[in-house]
Amino acid sequence: MDLLKSLKKNSLSDIPWNFSYGLLSFEQVKDYCTTLLDKNSSVMKTVEKELLCHEFHDKCLLNLMLKSYAAEYMTNLCDTWRLHDEVKFAAIEMFGKFHALLLSQIYETIYERPEKTLSLYNQGQSNQDTTVCNSKEQITEKNNQWNQTLEHVAKQMELRAVSCIVIANKLDEHKQGPVNLSFAAKYLSEKGFNYNIDALIKSELRVLKTFQYNLGSMLLVMPHVGVLIDYLFHIDQTFSREDIYVLSTELLNCFYPRCVKFYAKYSLHENHSELNLAKASDKMILVAHDIILLACGIVTSAVYLWSSTKSDLVIKILSSVTDVSQNRIVKFSYTLLEETLK
């Protein structure tokens, strides 16, 4: 229980990640907007610096690809279990970042640490030091070890997906449904997996340890979307908060499985000449970390689907409150609708 309280205290966002939208005063909404904008600015500055690091670049690409890979399965599972949208999207983000962190740690251990290599692909085996040399035999051994690691991680994908959903649901203040360790173990058993409650507990701990028990490093879009929708409603009460929220979640359901393709396509419109980015994928990674831009694009697209005559107004309002240019919001929303409505 103490661990859960600690996780909630340090989890997910500087604002409640699933607070009841529509119950906030305009002053509270503006304060939340300021908080989210400041955090987003800090994240973007950090990413700009970290992109010079090869390891960070590869970790971000892994995160995107794994989110895209697992999104449809995790979305269907969360919908079947009738979990909140915030739980669903938090679990998808957790799954992607967990595997990116895990694989980068293991890769570094196998290939880059000079003092030893560790056999981490099998959690039950003890770690053994071996002398590192540059011989072909040693390189072959490391390659084999890495391939074994990837095979082992792939076999546990469904276990990790379920673990991330269970963890996210525990952090949901308004959690609903019977989703707990017993429920998850029964589900995996029915799917033909031999995982008991003890295995699920170990899996949860593996996820949390990889995050160093700090889930605040995840970038979650739903708090941003909710705050921006509330902001629109306070400006103009003809906006239907409920309809726009539902459309936003449906767009995110379509977005996550296509996020790699979307970001690759949209980043062609971005101009970051002042940063001297070496690779085209660097622009994609930078854009993928801009949660304010994603939230603006999601909300603008949702408003367009709800009432296309309101889209120009929402673009002006969101641009004024977020400092994202109207041109970027238009291009992002257009690309989003083009990809998700295929």
UniProtKB/TrEMBL annotation:
The keyword Magnesium does not apply. Keywords: Membrane, Transmembrane, Transmembrane helix. The chain crosses the membrane at residues 211-233, 284-306. Gene3D superfamilies: Cyclin-like (1.10.472.10). InterPro entries: Cyclin-like_sf. This is Cyclin N-terminal domain-containing protein 1. The lineage of its organism: Eukaryota, Metazoa, Chordata, Tunicata, Ascidiacea.
